[in-house]
Design brief:
five-stranded parallel sheet
Length: 193
Amino acid sequence: MFGRRVLLADPDPEFRKKLKDLLQQHGYLVVAETEDGRSTLQAAFQSQPDIIIMEGKIPGCKGLEVARVIEEHHLAPVVLVTSHCHRELIEEAKFSSVLGYLTKPIDDVNLIPTLEMALATFKRLVRMEQENRKLKKMLEERKLIDQAKRLLMEKKGLSEQAAHRHMQKLSMDHSSSLAKVAHRIIISLSRDQ
């Protein structure tokens, strides 16, 4: 029984085979193997892996461009692998979507915890981003409602409570959200100027 789906991106087929065997021993399923930046992106979009293990200096791309594109589309967490410690790469990785870093040769003592931490961090980041979008939407709706109330108070001479009740009644009568009612009020009362 396989668990998490992995994309292996490394130009060395021998390394990929060893890593694939190690991953399979721990219940991971390698869904794609690539050897350059372009094919890594194509495979990431097509196979939709849970995690991507990628050579830090993968041929066919500049720096961590592949990792940035993967992050931009929220495809999967990226764990970088290198043959030795690259100071510049680590510095660049700090400011990208890379959620793990491993140095070859890789063993399961380091591999599995790194993958699991990267997956957990990625899920937490995605949840936080969704919550952030939700809060932004709520704030925008609140601003619309407050603006509509102010217009009702100015143009119709209503108190704040009366303006709010008026908007609630319109919302119920038209089976529409307060934000949509507020938007219609703003458009209607702004035209009357």
